[in-house]
Amino acid sequence: MQLPITLFYAAILTIFALVLSFGAGSFRGKTGLSVLFGEPPNMELAEKVRRHQNFLEYVPILLIVMGAIELNGGSTTFLHVVGALLITVRIAHAVGIKHDNLGHPGRLVGAGGNRLAHTGDGRIRSLVGRTRYDGLAHHVRRARTAE
């Protein structure tokens, strides 16, 4: 089965991940810093690395869940809303990561929207899981009572 909606958002987010990766990698090349941020710490490099890491912490699981929802016949409107929200909040979050401003509006929008996307996916996950596994749970209960 194909996943055209999930793959559409995965493609866009992959391009964004490459942009974030290039930002951190090219800055490492310019500064000559490898793993550590240097002495004194290079906060610009730390921000670029953190933007990329944060993206990689949250986006893959949401794409996996979107794919599961799409495979189980979930609402295409819901998938597009979650996908568009995910793109928007990841851009806002990347813009908002500042080492000297934890309360940057972009970071707040990004973090809050990311949680909203997770919550929406989680509720659908529980509905998909419930309908998918209720039959299995029923058979397990019947087998146990028959013993």
Task: Supply the key terms.
mainly alpha, Four Helix Bundle (Hemerythrin (Met), subunit A)
Could you please describe the fold and organization of this structure?
The protein has a single domain (4-146), classed as Membrane associated eicosanoid/glutathione metabolism-like domain (Four Helix Bundle (Hemerythrin (Met), subunit A), Up-down Bundle). Helices cover 82% and strands 0% of the residues. The chain has helices spanning 4-31, 43-71, 76-96, 105-146. The longest helix has 42 residues, at 105-146. The chain is elongated and about 55 Å long. The two termini are 39 Å apart.
CATH topology: Four Helix Bundle (Hemerythrin (Met), subunit A)
Count of DSSP helices? 4
Strand/helix succession: HHHH
| Fraction of residues in helix | over 70%
What number of structural domains do the residues give? Answer: 1
Total DSSP E strands: 0
